[in-house]
Protein 1
Amino acid sequence: MSINIAVIAGTGMGQLLGEGVKKNTRTPFGKITYFELLIDSRIKIIFIDRHHSCLGHFDLPHELNHRAYMWFLAEHDIQFVIATSAVGGINGPNGIENLTVGSIGLPMDFVDLTQKPYTFAGRESGLVHETAFHRSPINMFCLVLRDLIAHHVDCAHGILSCVQGPRYETRAEALILRDVYQVNFAGMTTAVPEVILAREAAMHYLLLANVTNMPLEDPPADGAEVKVAIAQRQERLLKVIKCLIHILHGTPPEFKCECIKTPSVFQMCEQSQD
Ligand SMILES: [Zn+2]
């Protein structure tokens, strides 16, 4: 049975999703650990424990080896990536006023404030191409996947920001995110490098943004309360993820989205060498 769905989340989520087998592999960007999980004893998926808590430590957002695990998913012909990420919720922009701790949102676009070159191109991978890495920036978070699950979440649009982390935004920075960048979901370097790499690999990528703090209304005092908020909402996230997995495994709609409009950079680089 081939696997075409991957979930990227925290360790607890993997344990809740199903029984898993831990495996290790190498990529041009380094080693990774992943899990093969069986959902409801019949649907096989790949699970990536983003922060590697399963290995007895915790990789902070700025320490994640995004290229290694996204390369692995692309190499294994994963088509659909469902990711979760803890974010700060900001009401106001884009007509969104209902975010509270515990809300689940589906960002439609992002602002990358790190401006780092997140790409598979380069010496490590050997991928070189004149045009392949200039990908469409439209609907980076798969529009079809968002539509499939929109009625299960609290907010099915909005803008995600990416800052380096691991610290939280200051109040002044959060005001800039709201008033200048129209941001609703303040995130760190988790989903944003991933969604960029997913687009290079022509994979459909969906983010379930889990609001764990409200930077302007009730600023977080420390990471402990975020951890509590994540734990409290895990069951609900689990339901949404499983629902989507069942749809994708059953009779999914036709995917005519921007994600697969252009072949992956892997295919394009290979073709240019022929
Ligand atoms: Zn798509």
Protein 2
Amino acid sequence: MESNVLKKNINIARMYYPVKTLGPGERIGIWLAGCSRNCKGCISTDFKSETAGRRIEVGRLIEMIKKYFLYDKELFLTQENRFSDLSNKYESGEGKDIFTEKRCGVTISGGEPFIQPVGLNALVREIKKYTEDIIIFTGYLYEELLEKKDENINQILSMTGMLVDGPYIDNLNDGIGMRGSSNQRFIVLNHPEYYDHPEKWKRGIQGAVYGNKIITMGIPDKI
Ligand code: SF4
């Protein structure tokens, strides 16, 4: 069973640490590829195509996260050689396990994470062994996810700390809070101690060099 979970595939477009604009503290950010919606004003167009990502076994992804080095502030999914160097350092004892060094949450976004219920279930199940501070952004309403009566989705929700739900609606973008538009809700499903009044969290954007380009992460101000 355990090895089956680790062998599930997930289509991931980007992973980065530290993300400071998508939840409390310094987080691991994971963006999954693919979304069939067409929200006007979507800021995640890079991740909408399923071909924007790369399929990777969940076990391999978790291995990459665990072997991440706090003193090396960037984690590139796309640079395998560089990751191998880091892994070697970790194996030799030079590196530190991010999850044991300090409490570190994970934010999963996209794209639409819930179009990959099998892979997402496996990913969240594995992440939960290290941290229960798991935030997921979805274009679905919470009620729509429940109505699917999908065992994988129900299991994901039972392990999720906080869900930010609902599609982005451009004319409801009020410029306030860590969500794109005012219809989106912060639904704390587990561990309320991690999510203190999320409706008051400020939105912000963080820039970073990712591979050979500059990226931004977070929720931009209303233009
Ligand atoms: S659900 Fe999110 S990723 Fe998909 S189109 Fe809407 S804003 Fe973009």
